Amino acid sequence: MRHSTAEDKVDVTVETPVETTDRQAAGEGLVVATGDDGMARTEMPTSTITTTLLEDEGKSGVNVEEEEVEEGPLQPTADQLEVEQTTADQPEVEQTTLEAEQMKPLHDLQAERDKLSLRNSQLLLQLLHHICRKAPNEPHALHGTTDISELEQRYLKLLDTVENLARQHCSDSELHLQQAIDLHQQSQEKVEQVEREWKAWAEARCEATVATLSRTLGRRTALAQAERLGEAMQKGEDDLGINLTLDEGINLIDFEQLKIENHTYSKKIEERDEELLKLRKKISSTLQVLSHVKEKLQFVQVENQAKRDRLVQAQVVVDQGRDILTRTKQARDALRADNLRLRRRCSLLGNATLLRDFEEKVDAYKVLEEQLEMLKRRHAELSVRGAGVKRIRQMR
């Protein structure tokens, strides 16, 4: 079964005897743990084991009491009722425990995802510092106008170089190991050939010694003398063989140590290759995000340029409005001065109270004139009537 997150591409392999899904594993309260050997193992939480033991104990207690009930009276006892109530409450406790255990692997995976995201950001920052440190004299190394495509090509070339060097190191290690094995086999063959030739030479020498000594000392004495010389030579050869064996053992130990170191380095190279593959995947996703960001940046730059053009046009309109406003203020000041001068020349025009009083006086004057005219006409009529009356009186 394999747990994976879409963002960090973290694969955790869980070896179980029965194939189950993620939800089944979470429902059964399984905890995914990663060991030192890189393999993930499924562990059952302690709370689940305790609950299972309690259930087993409860079940066994119920069975015992059922047997006692069968042997005793048929009426249920208080202990049996309490056990039945505990058995009825157990599913709720188990459901709560299972819900808590189901969320634990999810929290663990989320924490691991956050750690890997943080590690990804740190690696990207280290990569940026490394590129800036490699090219400190370039004008675009520390500015916003960095040629991203060129940096990407350089980074990909460096990754290819590292991968080629790792592959070459692995092939060289295998070649050297094979050469060492071949040389060891050749040395063993040479040693066996030397031993065979040495035995043949020792036999020939013994025969020559016996033949030489038998001429002067006799056959038996020559054989005894040859045996003593052979034993002395054999002792020397044994001492020499022990020294050679010790040297060969030391060389073999060194060879085994080198073999172990080579195997360790091979494992480290494989781990680095896996990390490199993960980094490449992350770099590809980062490059996609970077391309989207570049497109967004270009769109924003075009939008900013359009807004700058509109701002320039608005600035021109504002300048024109300022000129018009200045001329309007000047005209206002001139009109205000003329108004003040006219007010000084026409004092009544500037005083509403006097104007109102003047209008009232004029209206009253007109009324009085009308009354005067009426009185004059009345006086004339009365005068005419009085003259007529006087004439009538005089005529009488």
UniProtKB/TrEMBL annotation:
Q: Where is this region: Disordered?
A: 56-77
- Keyword tags: Cell projection, Coiled coil
Gene name as annotated: LOC118240139
Say yes or no: keyword Iron-sulfur present.
no
User: Which superkingdom heads the taxonomic lineage of this protein's source?
Assistant: Eukaryota
Gene Ontology cellular-component terms for this entry are: axoneme; ciliary basal body
List the GO biological process terms: cilium assembly
UniProt organism field: Electrophorus electricus
Name the record gives this protein: CCDC113/CCDC96 coiled-coil domain-containing protein
Which InterPro entries does the entry mention? CC_CF (IPR051885), CCDC113/CCDC96_CC (IPR025254)
Q: Where in the cell is it found?
A: Cell projection, Cilium
The keyword Coiled coil is annotated on this UniProt entry: yes
The CCDC113/CCDC96 coiled-coil domain sits at 245-384
Point out the signal peptide segment: none
Transmembrane feature ranges? none
Which Pfam families does the UniProt entry name for this protein? CCDC113_CCDC96_CC
Q: Which residues form a coiled coil?
A: 106-197, 325-385
